[in-house]
């Protein structure tokens, strides 16, 4: 537990970092907390080091570092765009709703994006309503891929893509309550292929 003076010292250092984006000199800390002795400040700082709140950086005149912020700065954070919701039931108009979701480094990669599933037509593929699916943006897909398909430039859906020999494609649900939809291939535009999935539990 910190003494009042140690807490004052720590609070000043944090505030100084916020204001100047660098560490204060000992003289600045002393002035900031109303002391004339830098020796006392040195003792307070050593106590903060012992508590694991700050670190000394050897060879620098402003050789202090906030431990928590240093650790946070070393974390790799990957932000993917959350573009909206996609139908996994009957075809409905795609809803565009831009925000962001942080997935760490689990699904990083160029051209990746996230959609939240709305519907139960893919439950036999273990894709449930409310799940987040990570997709690789691309305009082609292989037979059997789970894809985000745009039908007639209007209706977006998540289905398994089956490529037929007669110039048609089938959007195959994974739920016996839904019928597959077979269309001429020119009516179906692939928007992306599922490469990952996330689920949260409350």
From TrEMBL:
Molecular-function GO terms, alphabetical: DNA binding; serine-type endopeptidase activity
Domain LexA repressor DNA-binding per the UniProt entry, residue ranges: 2-63
One of the Pfam families matching this protein, by short name: LexA_DNA_bind
This protein's UniProt keywords: DNA damage, DNA repair, DNA replication, DNA-binding, Hydrolase, Repressor, SOS response, Transcription, Transcription regulation
GO biological process: DNA repair; DNA replication; negative regulation of DNA-templated transcription; proteolysis; SOS response
Domain Peptidase S24/S26A/S26B/S26C: 81-195
Keyword presence, Hydrolase: yes
PANTHER family: LEXA REPRESSOR, LEXA REPRESSOR-RELATED
NCBIfam families: lexA (TIGR00498)
Record protein name field: LexA repressor
Organism field: marine sediment metagenome
